[in-house]
Amino acid sequence: MSRRRTIDASYDHINNDGKEKRGVNKKAVNQHLTIEGDKERFKELLRRRLTECGWRDEIRILCRDAIRDKGVHNVSVDDIVEEVTPVGRARVPDSVKKELLQKIKSYLYEKATK
Amino acid sequence: MCDIGCPHLQELKSTKGVELYRIIFSSFVAASSSVARKRKAIHCFCFVCKSIDYRLHSCLQCVYFGCYKGHHIQDHAKHKKHYLAVELSHGNILCVACGTYVYDDEFLNVAHELMVRTGHKLGMGALYRPWEPSAKVLELLRKNPRRRKIVPGVAIGLRGLINLGNTCFMNCIVQALTHTPLLRDHFLTEEHVCRPEDQAGCLVCEVSTLFQEFYSGNKGPLTLHRLLHMIWTHARHLAGYEQQDAHEFFIATLDVLHRHCKASAPALPENENSQPDNPHQCTCIIDTIFTGGLQSDVVCQACNGVSTTIDPFWDISLDLGTSARGGNNVGDEGSFNSVGSDLSLSGDSKQANNGPTTLIDCLERFTRAEHLGSSAKIKCNNCQSYQESTKQLTMKKLPVVASFHLKRFEHSSRLHKKISTYISFPEQLDMTPFMSSNRNNRNLLNSRTSSSSSSSSSSDSAGDWISSGSGPLSLSDNRYSLFAVINHLGTLDAGHYTAYVRQQNNHWFKCDDHMITRANLQEVLDSEGYLLFYHKKLMEFQ
Amino acid sequence: MLSPEEVEALEGINRRFQELMSDPENVNEAANFLVDDLIDEMTIGVVFEVHRSAKLGVLDPEADMSGEDPSKFKIVEDPGLDVFGQPPVIKKFQDCVCPSCNRGLAASRFAPHLEKCMGMGRNSSRIASRRIANNSKETSSAMASEDEDDEWTIGGDRRRKKRDRSNGNAKKPAKSLKADRRNGDSNSSFSGSVSEGLGGSTGNSSSIDASSAALEAMRPDERRNLLGSICGVISEHTRKLCTRSLRCPQHSDEQRRTLRASVLVDESSFQSDIQVLQVNVESLGLDPDDLLSGLSGNVVGGLGLGSLSRGSWETERSNASSPADSVSVSSSTSSKKREKSSPGKSSSHKKKSKHSSSHEL
């Protein structure tokens, strides 16, 4: 246990701004979700909500427009992703975000107390 | 213009086939087994910067994970000349040499197959697949470039219907059916093929024509004389000029459509299991949309043995309660009801006196356990004797379209009147509390809490969460939204039917025979309500 | 299974997770970033879909939405008019053609006309009862119900039309039996007075001059038309053509074939005609058994306890086959309305068997 702590601590030297730590945290959470299979379920839940509220269709139209502007042969996935991602985040309805947040939080609490 | 993969992908396919892709996909993209998921969690991170994000790629030609943002996978590709990589969120293939993602049918099929498998394993049903037109459809679409778009504020989909002499009941049912989204989609897209000699008498052909008329954009009202003739022909018990009941007409119409759909369906291969008459196996559009399963549980009070039957249904007829009728209830039905509610196990004495005032109330009464009384003992197979019992109805399977019939008309020998009590109904309806699974769970929980204390949780959360329909991760969805309401105005003997239909989201219209006018949701919800039509919000793929 | 290193790594992950989640601030942060992450992943998923469609060349159909001018269909919001801009009163006469008798008539009068045309409603049953009384020597009730097949012939031949009208009443016997069972039922009334213009008691065979002489007097196509819709076998005692349906049980196909061979120029068409018309009649769903089974269906459906009466203690699927049967399984009370609908319910069950099995002669 102490050995691990020293190893982890040694990383802190490298990135003091805590970004590294956040990255480690992110990873741990992601990993755990993957193990349980619940990441897929959250994805499916989100997919359903976003389809229902029309978000998916909106984003599709944006992507189509991006492709049309740049031309089918020239456009790359990166181009479209760059253009569409910020809009994607903004266009998610608050209710959907709230629901997902709340569900994830209660899930995490539940798992943490096991 | 069709890009099919790229030369690099083709070369890989010809030398190594799709096996490697399959392995990578099933291990790291759509890990379906518990072990696979654990491995994925442990091993999938960028070999250079250790990060995990949704744009992590796996090299298709060796064991290497590299992230996209940090260019680590691109570096690896150029360095090792392994130009092909799989991104681990969706399984798409990147060709670094070509600088783009490339698509090949064979790989796509493998991906689809594995996704479906994972979906099933996690108890999620088939995962959503976007619509892809077939070659034939594409051809048709190219040849016919004209498009008609239904935007808000457009009258397409609405038509008036002439009253042929007290036929408002038929007009209303037709309005409801033509605005049933799934039914409309089926008729506007499916090609119903009838032999020419059958067409004259085929109701499905007639309804098909009707849908075409409704969406043609024409404005004049239609006459449903052929439809009336056909229904009266095939449902003789309905025929007759006197005022008819819209609910009966609805059931008869579904029945005839169902029969005609079956009649013109291609012959199924004969096997020992197929029973031509078995409606449980019918796959016609009517059964797909309207048929649900009603579970009836009779519990013997002596031995607690449960006997379960499941009956198919097209709609639910809801009693409006004895007190709604008012006065003495010495008539046959009245007394039965009041005895039942007095002895009911729900223990909610308030309901027994006041009667239902909302649709939810009606559904609660419908699905509550009823004590059948000492005069109605049932033979219990377990006890081998006649015992008192309770009976409970729940929804085993809900249809895509849930139709509710409020029993406002009394036809017993004593009572002959209309119950006009206002029953309020919601625009959004969640049927979860009335499902059989709910009842089963309640019973399970009741028996469990008495035996063990720990809640149901295991490391493999897959089965429990989903099948029990509870918990934050439940993906079971029983939400319905209102799309049509049929109202009856007037008395039992002299009345008139009108309908409210939803043409588009939040756009409601009142259909009074040939007069179609705009209505608002509040108007609809304030109306009396006789037949209520709800459509499932989420369609699950098989 | 997992290697020892993997197992250890797994435990490490778990431990770290537990540590992190014990701090609520971490939970919040984790939830937030997860949501953002998932949204981004969704977004790129859509991007991939569209990109793939574009590369595969299937994006075109959606893209081009140049279509008709939507303002053509704009909804009119005028309070006095409907959504199409039309006033409430129908200006012109809406006409329609009766599918049964091919006559044109005003739409608002169609339903009462159809009722009479199809031989139902209050006025028609008196005629039918009279007919039973007159025909009782020659026919039995079972045969009377089979007469109903006669009227569903194709085409608008006037002779057949007239026959339709009077034969239509042949249905009445079985129907009025049904009516008796359904007391207090406001929707169907089959008692009634005389209807206008319907023929006399021997309407069946007299409306067609059905002797072989008359047959010869017809033009070949008239003959074929006639023999395409009726049995046609010449009965020994009346010397007239049998006007029952092509599947009339009194005569065999053999007899029918022989008749046609002798009378028609082209006899080979008989067989195929039989097929076609059989299908037609079947697809109309008419079944002589129908009405009789409807009676028995009444009994089953009418019992008060709904599904209980069907011995619901068995756990296998119940006998209610058609959803139409189970319409009012809702409550344990019986309502007369349910009884009323059951003939239709059970008959639909029976009709299904019709489609699969061949007609027994």
From TrEMBL, chain A:
Please state the protein's primary subcellular location: nucleus
**Which controlled-vocabulary keywords does the entry list?**
Activator, Chromatin regulator, mRNA transport, Nucleus, Protein transport, Transcription, Transcription regulation, Translocation, Transport
The subcellular location is: Nucleus, Nucleoplasm
The family database entries (InterPro entries) matched by this protein are listed as: TF_ENY2 (IPR018783), TF_EnY2_sf (IPR038212)
Cite a single Pfam family from the UniProt record: EnY2
Show the GO MF annotations. Answer: transcription coactivator activity
One GO cellular component assignment for this chain's record is: nucleoplasm
Q: Tell me which Gene Ontology terms the entry assigns under biological process.
A: chromatin organization; mRNA export from nucleus; protein transport; transcription elongation by RNA polymerase II
- Please list where the region (Disordered) is annotated: 1-21
Outline what the protein does. Answer: Involved in mRNA export coupled transcription activation by association with both the TREX-2 and the SAGA complexes. The transcription regulatory histone acetylation (HAT) complex SAGA is a multiprotein complex that activates transcription by remodeling chromatin and mediating histone acetylation and deubiquitination. Within the SAGA complex, participates to a subcomplex that specifically deubiquitinates histones. The SAGA complex is recruited to specific gene promoters by activators, where it is required for transcription.
Quaternary form?
A: Component of the nuclear pore complex (NPC)-associated TREX-2 complex (transcription and export complex 2). Component of the SAGA transcription coactivator-HAT complex. Within the SAGA complex, participates to a subcomplex of SAGA called the DUB module (deubiquitination module).
**What PANTHER family does the annotation carry?**
ENHANCER OF YELLOW 2 TRANSCRIPTION FACTOR (PTHR12514)
Family to which this protein belongs: Belongs to the ENY2 family.
Q: What is this protein called?
A: Enhancer of yellow 2 transcription factor
Q: Which organism is it from?
A: Megalurothrips usitatus
From TrEMBL, chain B:
MF terms in GO: cysteine-type deubiquitinase activity; zinc ion binding
**Where is the protein situated, by its record's location annotation?**
Nucleus
Q: What is this protein called?
A: Ubiquitin carboxyl-terminal hydrolase
Ranges where the UBP-type domain occurs: 4-122
Which organism encodes this protein?
Megalurothrips usitatus
The segments labelled Disordered in the record are: 436-463
Query: Which residue range or ranges hold the USP domain?
Result: 159-537
Q: Which UniProt keywords apply?
A: Hydrolase, Metal-binding, Nucleus, Protease, Thiol protease, Transcription, Transcription regulation, Ubl conjugation pathway, Zinc, Zinc-finger
UniProtKB/TrEMBL annotation, chain C:
A GO MF term: transcription coactivator activity
Task: Please tell me where this protein is predominantly located.
Answer: nucleus
Question: Locations of Low complexity compositional bias?
Answer: 185-196, 310-334
> What are the boundaries of the region Disordered?
128-214, 310-361
Q: Where in the cell is the protein located? A: Nucleus
Alphabetical UniProt keywords: Activator, Chromatin regulator, Metal-binding, Nucleus, Transcription, Transcription regulation, Zinc, Zinc-finger
Basic residues: compositionally biased ranges? 347-361
Q: Which residues form the SCA7 domain?
A: 218-285
| A GO CC term attached to the entry | DUBm complex
Q: What does the record say about domains?
A: The long N-terminal helix forms part of the 'assembly lobe' of the SAGA deubiquitination module. The C-terminal SGF11-type zinc-finger domain forms part of the 'catalytic lobe' of the SAGA deubiquitination module.
Family assignment from sequence similarity: Belongs to the SGF11 family.
**Role:** Component of the transcription regulatory histone acetylation (HAT) complex SAGA, a multiprotein complex that activates transcription by remodeling chromatin and mediating histone acetylation and deubiquitination. Within the SAGA complex, participates in a subcomplex that specifically deubiquitinates histone H2B. The SAGA complex is recruited to specific gene promoters by activators, where it is required for transcription.
Q: What protein is this chain from?
A: SAGA-associated factor 11 homolog
